[in-house]
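ok so for the tutorial part 2 we go from a plain amino acid sequence to predicted structure tokens. step 1 is just haveing the sequence, like this:
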Amino acid sequence: MTRGRSSELSFEEVASLAYERPDIARGYAGQTLAVDLSRGAIDITPLAEEVKRIFIGGKGLDLWLLWNAVNGDTAWNDPENAVCIASGPLGGTPNYPGSGKSIVTTLSPLTSTVIDSNVGGHFGPFLKFSGFDALCITGKAAEDTVVLVDGVRGVVEVLRAKGLPATAYDLSQQLSEHFGEDDPGSVSVVTTGPGAANSLLGCLDFTWYDAKRGRPRYKQAGRGGTGTVFADKGLRAVVARFGKVSQALNDPADAAALKDVAKLHREEIHQLDPVQNRMRQVGTTHIVDIMNDFDLLPTHNFRFGHHPEGLNLGQDVYDRLFDKGFDGCWIGCAVACSHGVKSFVPLTGPYAGREVFVDGPEYETIAGCGSNLGIFDPHTVLEINFYCDAYGIDTISFGTGLAFAMECFELGLIDERATGGFALRFGNRLAALEVLHQVARGEGFGALVGQGVRRMKEIFAREFGADPQVMADIGMEAKGLEFSEYVSKESLAQQGGYGLALKGPQHDEAWLIFLDMVHNLMPSFEQKAEALHWFPMFRTWFGLCGLCKLPWNDIVPEDNANTAEPAKVMQHVEWYADYFSAVTGREANPDDLIAMSEAVYNFQRIFNLRMGVCGAASDDIPYRAMGPVFPMEYEANGEKYDGELREELGDAVEEMSIEEKVAALRRRREAAYRKLKAAVYERRGWTEEGIPTLATVKRLGIDLPEVLELLAAHGVTS
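step 2 — the prediction. this is what the tokens look like for a chain of 718 residues:
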């Protein structure tokens, strides 16, 4: 079977299911879609009201589908592992800022437990409007396979594919043209590249079609190896096709109320973004300048938080490089922060000498693949950005992992025997690019970097005799996931955010760095502990509903600083509650948003327990996330650190050697982190080992028989 314009592609039908597309009712299609690649089976299941009430949508539905697909012994590369993708009841609203998100969830090859990513592009809304609140893909295909959800024709197809290009860029371009027929804008593609197949760092690229530039654009579900699972299943792409989108499609319970609240938030962004962060102009690159100013920009594997060349990677540079024009990853989004660089020419790799369009970079890529590697050349960052997307590699894990390897080389823990002959020093741009290409091919030293920091520590100790304790201190991973790009040494709140994050140290759940260090909105220990309860709950809620997190607290009302709880940006939280009520008809206030999230958040914590990743030890973080490992790090902020020690030791500090100061500060910082963990566990209603109590699961309505059985097996009976 062939269809569309591309003569290079051919498809053979493995399975097909025609269906009648349901009308969306108050934000829900009312059914989910399951595809088993091993059996070539396609099934549609009604969405139970109780499941909808507890799990809401998006990440919640993903978790529920994944929970029912796997068991505690399932490995990431078992056929039973599922790739689940969902939007949410608010997803697909074209007039409310940031309402086009998909949430993808699976068992991670890096952490062995649940990983999820909140990602832009048109796929989630197109999937829902095609008739499905969530998609669950299990099994493995023997040959390259494409899954098509065609909401225009009302058919789901599993297709054996031939003639597919290798990289995500070329593949999504051809599939958009092929399945879009005369309207490539009706297609959204989820795909990955060879780097996902050859490493554990695989990401997924989600597209939307940019009519002005005549090409698909990309957002990434980056963390934890989602692309690696996708590739392991023999999947080359999942394609959703749908027609014209309007507000009416979501069938809001109160269309007038939705219109009113959307207008308030949209107009505020249009008014205030130009004088606050200029995200419509420079995206998240403005964060580079702020982090560098506040000593929070990761430099040389998180050793330092500032560099004199930091602004070479800042917003003014990318303001000049970004192509001008509308850059929203969802229809009509007022933030429109998804910028890119056109006519970029890579110097290395398979695209060397060819003009390409680079989607990004965003802050995390700039910091992870720039300053953290000691690279302060924006063009090198662009080339790494481009190839990570083309190869399907997470820029955060790649950058943090390579920075660890660079420090190991500079410390003499590994040498040129390990790297294959090149000097892997900070700032070595050509070496960084060569390692990236090796990761994509699964060759050389890149094959080791592609295993992630946790496995690199084991390999370097076993094969090269590297010191395990030093690597434990400087290897920036927790739960097996590489740290996202904020220096947390001076922010106890951010340390807790990273350590207690359910999937590992990712900024979406743990972005307290601004509130704590830049705005100083939680100076007391009690405020930090309390923030580690409510902040992840708000961020979880966006993932339940199909929303972007940026409009909540990146652009804030003019009078926000004068409100009772400025850290929460309560005006926006109230608007979101009104938004949820207007679409679903389920009346909600800000406290209800917290309660919705608590149920799903605690369920995910129990899911971690099921997969063997739970307990207080699983929430530990490397010491560099808490304080200076080496004297040179201490000396970079010596006056501050001496002052902190004087609070406890008085004038005795003056007689201490630098090594004694480093050790004393470490004892102090580690004690503070242990105290914070205990306080947060108590606030969240968890045991001393970090397991939700029976009272907590009953209060939240997640006291399902299998949950109670699991808790009892771990001694939790009260």
